[in-house]
Amino acid sequence: MKSEILYPGAFPMVRVYLNEGETVKAESGAMVAASPTIDIESKMEGGFLGALSRKMLSGEKFFFQTLRAGRGAGEVLLAPTVPGEIVLLDLDGVNEYMVQKDGFLAGAEGVKIESKMQSLTRGLLGGEGFFILKIGGTGQLVLNSFGAIHKIDLKPNEEYIVDNSHLVAWTSTTTYNIEKASSGWIASLTSGDGLVCRFRGPGVVYIQSRNPSSFGNWIRQFIPVSE
Amino acid sequence: MNPTPNALCFGDGLPGAGAPCYVTVSADGLTMDPVGNASLGEEAIAFTAMSVQAGGLDHDQLVVSWGEGASARTLYLKDPVLIIAFRRAAPSALMAHLDRAAEQGRRARHSHRVLWGSAVGVVVGLGLLLWFGSDLIVEWAVARIPVQWEQKLGETVYQDFLTKETVLKEGPAVTAVQEMIQRMTVKIPNNPYTFQVSVVQSPVVNAFALPGGYVVVFTGLMKKAESGEEVAGVLSHELNHVLQRHGMERIVRMMGLAAVVSILVGDQQGLLGLARQVGMELATLKFGREQETEADVTGIRLLHDARIAPDGMIRFFERLSEKDKERVELFSTHPMSAARAERLKAELAALPKQTPEPFTFEWNSVQDSLGTSEPKK
After folding, report:
1. What average pLDDT does this structure show over B308-312?
2. Cβ separation of A189 and B269 shorter than 8 Å?
């Protein structure tokens, strides 16, 4: 599998080349177009229970699409639902990424995806929910974001503070704590962006330049209310 | 062919996500072979030169650091096989570090599990308690809410409500209702509430009492009643909702369930909105069947104590339910079933007989002061 990003920026697509027999896992509904040699299978990653738990717990789609180049090499075009950048990561078997539930777009056959329960405080306050995706294995991983993707490199023990709704993914060597940004808890909860994550290196944190829930709140005022 | 990497190396000049490398354990240290990274050469690190700790998001990785300044390197080992091999080979001086690291990891995982377990236990327990033993808990909680809070809450809603309605300031109707309340309240032992009553101009056949003792009677109800005793019956029932703090019980129950639900779904913003929302519910409070029965029974007793003919309420309900069930709003919150009427009658029969004292007002003239005796159809 080989991928390239087309139209980088707000409305990108990914072109994935598959050799005969190769497959790519994609978020269901992500396929835009494909060569006639590509077959689409809906497969429940991790079996029915795994898929069910992923659906119920992390809000991720129940099925992944598996696109298989069964009858010869071909290409697939994939696109995320929201406007925003795409990033390609190479997994080599040692590095692992924690990915917030909307961040996964596609992954090579060797990429392993599981739902992971976060600790209580992280789940309650982190804004990512109790469950996030833990993605490891080998091969290319495609993540999407809302807005532009920004990469933060952290050296050992280097710290960085991120508003939790801007998180896309982070490596599992990175630890983080939830903190409040303002001085009081009440102020934190009412001001909207009061909770932040303090990341500590080594590792990489990917953040998105737009906040989906803020955007949702903003756009809601323009939606006509039906009587 | 390159070996499969089994560790990540961090340091100056290396990729932020870590340089994949292949680590092997020997008798006196580690050998690190960077996979596919030309800028990093193979390096052997003696056990004596390194420090060890647990790390990573879940405290399940072994972190090996050595060197200083620009040549400082940190290695993250995740492979359990590699970690075990390392533990076997490492000298006991380092083992102390290692054991501490392992202990840290175990403790972190343990506290993680305990935290989750107790959180789930608390939430499930709360849910079960609220579901099954809710009455006891709610009563316990309500008993701890100061009457002043209740009054403040009730007063806010009361004033809100009254500004939207036409309130009768004076006249025979107001005097009559005040007399009823007065007759009853002096008979309430240890009454912590100061009852306030307003007569509101409205064809709605209803009356309600807010927590804290704020009573509203609609003129529609007074026009429908054939005697003052009938109105007093309804008022006595409403007063007893207040005295038994039924409104607070409903609020606490609503808050409690919703609080558990919002904890379950991890929605902390919801909790905040909740308190405000519940205030809105006050005016449209619907009581449970047990609360209605309790208010019925204590209401009849209160009427009896106040020497007001206690069958007025039953008569009023029975008379109205035959005629116009749909139009009387009172029935939406006080459905009058045959069983309920029977229970009221039985309760009435059990009370000692006495001669009721009539009210000082003429009911007919009270009704006349309200205008036409039939509300607009």
Report:
1. 82
2. yes
